[in-house]
Amino acid sequence: MEYMIMIISFIPIILISIFIPYVTRRTDSFGVSIPEAVYYSEELRSMRKRFAWQTALLGLVLVLLWWLVSIPVSLEVETVVFVCALFTFLFGSFVLYLIYHHRMKTLKARKAWGEPRSEVVAIDTAFRHGKIMVSLGWFTIPLGIALVTLICSFIFYQHLPTRIPMHYDMKGHVDRWADKSYRTVMSFPILQLYMTALFLFINSIIGKSKQQIDRENPEMSVKRNQLFRLKWARFNFLTGVLLVLMFSFMQLSYFIEISLTLTLVVTLSVVGLIVIGAVVLSFMTGQGGSRIKVGEGKQGEVIHREDDRYWKLGLFYFNRKDPSIWVEKRFGVGWTINFANPIGWGSLLVIIVIALLIPLLTR
């Protein structure tokens, strides 16, 4: 079972890293803005293929090394080897990205794709009038589940055993116990409320993040981006509901006897479903809806915008002149913050601090 948990953690990360260049916008390549027409050129196709194969090879070698080293050792050593292999892959794939990012910048300069006359920014003032996120009312579902779990935990508190399992090892054995108290019993309900608030916040980010529209085909671009946001907002909502339900199930195990096998199956199924769903949706939508088919439109003959100077390493957006807090990633699917905006930093800091405080306050 422990091998399954590790594989479920590792394989999706490798697959996502391999195919990231294929799901980014066609006006971006390895964190560098390009004319959409050159995205399909043989030169850029070759770069994407080489990056994918090299990333896949790195992942395969590390998985094989982890498997070979783990055969004769204890679970504790195996876990350490797994963590080392995972971080080695993340670091190695990042280095690979930096190499291709530099090559892409050099190629763009040589081809003169960033000439001033090609700079374009398009804005649709009616963009947010369409349905681009989940209505706030839907979040009463996970909120209701969390409140029911909280209330039931108080009502049936006296039926709990004197000691509560707080953590399991990779084999499903309890390795940390806690004496029964209202504080420890409230850990999952409080986590549910936090998760509900977090996914509600993410829903708001999806709706309010900076729009990015292709001038050469603005109508189709707006439709694609609206569908992209709506699909990811719905996925975000469903993810929140599934996680809140999973925590309710785990809270239930405090009150009635549930086999460890069933607990592991439920947990792995929920996590696996979310990971697979994210991977599939990434391929279906692409970044900004670039892979969504909504109609015919000509390919752009000019560069979408020339703001490479604000993207450090093609990953970190730093623009003091831009009031936007959340922007689309240049490399990958999803959103990142404008690192020059203190509100973005502040919101991330609050999220991290609360996440760290919950386990400390419920011990």
UniProtKB/TrEMBL annotation:
Has the keyword Membrane been applied to this entry?
yes
| Top-level taxon of the source organism | Bacteria
PANTHER family assigned to the protein according to its UniProt record, in alphabetical order: IMMUNITY PROTEIN SDPI, MEMBRANE PROTEIN
Q: Where are the transmembrane segments?
A: 6-24, 51-68, 80-100, 136-157, 186-206, 235-256, 262-283, 339-361
Question: This chain belongs to which protein, by name?
Answer: Membrane protein
Q: Which organism is it from?
A: Pullulanibacillus pueri
The record ties this protein, via InterPro entries, to: DUF1648, DUF5808, UCP032908
**Alphabetized Pfam families for the sequence:** DUF1648, DUF5808
Q: Does the keyword Transmembrane helix apply?
A: yes
Keyword terms: Membrane, Transmembrane, Transmembrane helix
Limits of the DUF1648 domain = 145-193
